[in-house]
Amino acid sequence: MEAGCPEKLIARCARRAIIAEQDRLNSNLVTCILPCMKSVQVQYEGRVQGVGFRWTVRNMACGFDVAGHVKNLPDGRVELLAQGEETDEFLEAIRTSEIAGHIGKECLSEVPRIPGLRGFSIIP
């Protein structure tokens, strides 16, 4: 058979079509996965220091697919950094938990993802 024969041309076109479809599916997969991985910084105001707020938040984090930390700020606020696929659910759990009554204001902002962030800790 010659290089230009219809069978080889059809096979080559079929291979290219399969590769193109695999590339399309992979790019859609990346598009679907990456937005789910959310990273946020939240600053809580109110009576949030000296009431077990950080301890409670850290314990709650164990039930969600999130990583990050929580720390007291010198001005009396508490700062939370959370990253993961269940960030929204984690924040909602905080809003509806027993410590919600201590929160006077929540300031949330999305921040760039931190590669390799693991675990959830209290920063003294």
- Measure the end-to-end span: 75 Å
In sequence order, what are the helices and strands, one letter per element? HEHEEHEE
User: Would you identify the regions where 5 or more consecutive residues have pLDDT less than 50?
Assistant: none
Quick check: average pLDDT?
86
User: Which CATH architecture of the largest domain is right?
Assistant: 2-Layer Sandwich
Tell me the number of structural domains: 2
Characteristic key phrases:
3 helices; alpha+beta; 37% helix; 124 residues; Alpha-Beta Plaits; 5-stranded mixed sheet
Can you describe what's shown?
The protein is an alpha+beta fold and 124 residues long. It has 2 domains: 1-36; 37-123, Alpha-Beta Plaits (2-Layer Sandwich), CATH 3.30.70.100. Helices cover 37% and strands 28% of the residues. The protein is built from 3 helices and 5 strands; from the N terminus they run αβαββαββ. It has helices at 6-33, 53-61, 87-95, and strands at residues 38-46, 66-72, 78-84, 103-110, 120-123. It has a 5-stranded mixed β-sheet with strand order 4-1-3-2-5, covered by helices on one side. Strand 2 and strand 3 form a beta hairpin. The radius of gyration is 24 Å and the shape is rod-shaped. The termini are far apart. The model has no long low-confidence stretch (mean pLDDT 86).
